[in-house]
Design goal:
Elements (H helix, E strand, L loop, with lengths): L5 H8 L13 H12 L2 E2 L11 H12 L12 H15 L9 E4 L1 H13 L5 E6 L3 H9 L3 E8 L4 E2 L1 H7 L4 E7 L11 H13 L3 E5 L25 E6 H4 L8 E4 L2 H11 L10 H9 L3 H25 L2 E2 L7 E5 L8 H12 L1 E2 L1 E2 L6 H6 L3 E5 L4 H11 L5
Parallel strand pairs: 1-12, 3-4, 3-6, 6-7, 7-8
Antiparallel strand pairs: 2-9, 4-5, 8-9, 10-11, 11-14, 13-14
Helix pairs in contact: 2-13, 3-11, 4-11, 5-6, 5-10, 12-15
């Protein structure tokens, strides 16, 4: 019998339940389990295999042994609030009041979840690009919202202006903008950014920008926060995290910034989620945000070289490769190798070549999943020797 409880209805609408009504495992859990069981090189899940910078680690040690082990302030420890404000000014010229316009969260995922829960009521519509990070659809469904998507098409994963406009309606409440984009590695172009701001004004929607890969943008292209565009700042919540930038994904230190009135509404929800988190890690991430500009430049250059190394290995193995302009990920097409179903290909890949990837279809609804059915996402946030080994293993696909 199909349950009619509100929770199961929203969970089913969010795609969280399988055909039997049970919670389904994420594709990341499935593929990581395959990597563990087979000893395959795990390029499926986007976490680094190197530690944070020494100064950041030392700050965490100091906080741990310095007595910072109890609940931190609800908004976050002052030094991190101030560091976020300084970072926004230093890199983007954005003025942020650390005491009123910043909120520390348990990673960027909680920041997005708290924002959606704060502003989305039953039947409200939330727009994302598609493919989309799976947590977006889940939290929209759990909030009772309706998830509308704008497809990213072609080998460059571009936005069609007409499809973008068509996604908006009088029920649009939020637009979640992931830029740089996971899983495709694309960046939004200037025309799309401007259209987003104009449409948000026209339909009185809020913009929520997921910018966790803000320091993972390649080929000398600068990251452009949406809030810096004319007319955007008063309706934009900017989300980021220390996990990607400082190789500290397990610390789960994220933050959001925006107009004080909006941040206060989000905090009223966040206090009933995790309440607070990461007392010893917050001051450490603050140290990271204050590292010299050279650190960030070297970090980006290192990842760009790893992108190039993985892309070369995939091309050599016979994949078609889409250009990765940002993020941790390269998208490769398995069709030239004779595989049209990337989900089945990824399940077989540990045995075929000793490597794990993730099908891009896992980030899509049924219609776009069919269009992207042969695409695989591979992560390059690994040590160079690991990526090189993966390339050697993938070469077996052409043997």
């Amino acid at each position: 019998m199909t349950s009619s409880t509100p929770w199961q209805r929203t969970a089913r609408g969010a795609g969280l339940l399988d055909a039997t009504g049970h919670l389904r495992s994420t594709v990341f859990a499935e593929m990581s389990a395959l990597a563990t069981a087979t000893g395959a090189v795990n390029l499926g899940q986007g976490f680094p295999d190197e530690d944070p910078p020494e100064a950041v680690l030392e700050a965490a040690r100091d906080a741990l042994f310095g007595g910072s082990n109890q609940y931190p302030p609800g908004r976050g420890v002052p030094t991190l609030l101030e560091a976020v404000s300084e970072h926004q000014q230093r890199f983007y010229g954005i003025d942020v009041d650390p005491g009123r316009e910043v909120l520390v969260t348990a990673g960027a995922t909680e920041a997005i979840a708290a924002t959606v829960l704060a502003f989305v009521d039953q039947g409200d519509e939330v727009i994302t690009f598609e493919p989309f990070y799976d947590a977006y659809g889940a939290v929209i469904g759990l909030a009772g919202g309706r998830h509308r998507t704008v497809p990213l098409r072609g080998p460059d994963f571009r936005v069609d202006a007409d499809e973008l406009r068509a996604a908006f309606s009088s029920r649009t409440r939020l637009v979640i903008v992931n830029d740089p984009h996971n899983p495709t590695g694309t960046l939004l172009d200037d025309a799309t950014r401007s259209s987003l701001v104009a449409l948000a004004h026209e339909f009185d929607a809020l913009l929520v920008t997921d910018e966790v890969y803000e320091h993972v943008v390649f080929d000398g292209v600068p990251h452009v926060p949406l809030s810096t565009l004319p007319g955007a700042s008063e309706r934009t919540i900017t989300v980021s995290s220390g996990g990607k930038t400082f190789n500290a994904t397990g610390w789960k230190i994220g933050w959001l910034s925006g107009p004080a009135s909006l941040v206060s509404q989000i905090m009223s929800v966040k206090q009933y989620l995790t309440f607070v988190n990461g007392s010893v890690f917050q001051p450490a991430i603050a140290v990271g945000l204050r590292l010299p500009r050279e650190h960030f430049d070297d970090f980006t250059a290192d990842l760009q070289s790893k992108r190039d190394l993985l892309s070369a290995g995939l091309l050599s193995a016979g994949f078609d490769v889409s250009p990765a302009r940002g993020s941790y990920f390269v998208v490769a097409d398995a069709a030239p190798l004779g595989y049209d179903d990337a989900a089945e290909f990824c399940r077989a890949l540990p045995q075929l070549a000793g490597v794990v990837g993730v099908p891009v279809s896992a980030f899509c609804g049924p219609t776009l999943a069919a269009e992207h059915s042969s695409l695989v996402r591979f992560a390059f946030c690994k040590r160079a020797e690991v990526i090189d080994e993966a390339g050697r293993r993938l070469a077996a696909l052409r043997a």
